[in-house]
Amino acid sequence: VTLVVELEGPTGYFPHLLTLPGSYPVPRHVVETHGEAWTEVENIVTSGPFRLEAWQWGRSAALVRTPTYHGRFTGNVQRVEVSLLVDPFARLELYEADGLDIYHLCDLPPAELDRARHRHAGEYVSVPALGTLYVGFDASRPPFDDPRVRRAFVLATDRETLVDGVLRGTAFPATGGLVPQGVLGHSAGIALPYDPDRARQLLAEVGYPGGRGFPIVTLLTDHSRRPHSEYLQAHWRENLGVEITVETMDWGAFYDRLDSEPPLMFCLGYRADYPYPDEVLGVYSGTGWRRTLWQNETYDGLVEEAKRASDQGRRMEMYQEADRILVEEAVIMPFAYGRCHALVKPWVRWCPASATKFWFWKDVII
Question: Does the first or last residue of the chain, that is N or C, have fewer Cβ atoms within 10 Å of its Cβ?
Fold first, then answer.
């Protein structure tokens, strides 16, 4: 069986797209026979190293090794039991009771994550993740329609203190652009520096000396990012003299609000699905920061041309120039690059991980 794909033009990142679940093959004969029920345990047919043996919705799943798998299988795991518990504290308790061999810490609040990794220091593993946390500004409405105001807020932000103090060192300070570390085309060191004096000067130029007369602005975020947002609130009050209110809500309501009533400021994060800058900077992707309603023909032209360029070096130059424009225009303020955190029991002798994936179960050695 041969899969043939015809592209409209050169697409340098196309091989990465084939690694996404949406590109995986589906057994046509099973779908035609069972319809939507083709994913039921008794019907599902897959081509991976494990097959689904049992599934309790929202609780657990059990996978067993597929003897007919054609790829490399370097580990010795014959069965994988996956906990689907939503509560991260319940999963941590399960790990500490030896009910889990591997526990991913990323859903814990920063302070709890920090305590857990120190409590189990000998079992702690961390790798970079292809993600960025950032603040977005609505560039279509006052006061953030003036780039000087946006730059003032960025210049007034100490990323190092935010990451080390509030995030407890569980991320990396975003000293580059929106494209995170580990993604081809990342531009290190291009972020606007921490310069509160220059920030206050810019705000005074716009007519808000010492923050006087600046409107009360709401920073919208979800509950998981409340500590970051409250730090920024206090930081900007101290450095700029402005008053920012923080409004937090559940994840679903937060996203609905971004679409229905776009805020003047929002705190958001993303994790790249594949390690290529178009996924971050693309004109039609990156919908989170595009909620800034910012438009720039030069930026759009660079990203579109980079997508179709056949020369890899030239593509990266254009993506990096586009990222630099985002930084200089201060449409968004990246403040942290992500990391993945896990606890791994001592009897797990080998548990590979990468910036894009932490679940190489076929290669795990117990």
Answer: N
Instruction: Return d(Cα 19, Cα 162) in angstroms, integer.
Output: 34
Distance separating alpha carbons of residues 46 and 40, to the nearest angstrom: 12
Query: What are the Cα distances from residue 46, in Å, to 25, 50, 78, 224, 358?
Result: 8, 8, 16, 35, 20
**What token pair was written down for 122?**
């000998």
Which residues neighbour 187 within 8 Å (Cβ) at sequence distance 6 or greater?
176, 177, 179, 320, 323, 324
210: left (phi over 0), alpha (psi -120 to 50) or beta: left
- Residue positions counted in the chain: 366
- Give me the long-range contacts of 17-21 (CB less than 8 A, separation at least 24): 17/274, 19/274, 20/273, 20/274
Q: Is 62:55 a contact under the CB 8 Å cutoff?
A: yes
d(CA 281, CA 306): 11
Handedness of CA 108, 109, 111, 114 (dihedral sign): positive
pLDDT of residue 11: 83
Query: What pLDDT does 91 receive?
Result: 92
Residue 15 pLDDT exceeds 90: no
83 conformational bin, left if phi > 0, alpha if psi -120 to 50, beta if neither: beta
State the CB neighbour count (10 A cutoff) for residue 324: 16
51 has which bridge partners? 64
Write the DSSP string, 62-79. EEEE-TT--S---S---E
Strand 124-137 relative to strand 265-271, pairing = antiparallel
Average pLDDT over every residue of 65-77: 92
Q: Under DSSP, is residue 365 helix (H, G, I), strand (E, B) or coil?
A: strand
Which burial class, exposed, middle or buried, applies to 117 when counting CB atoms under 10 A from its CB (0-12, 13-18, 19+)?
Answer: buried
Q: How confident is the model at residue 287 (pLDDT cuts 50, 70, 90)?
A: low
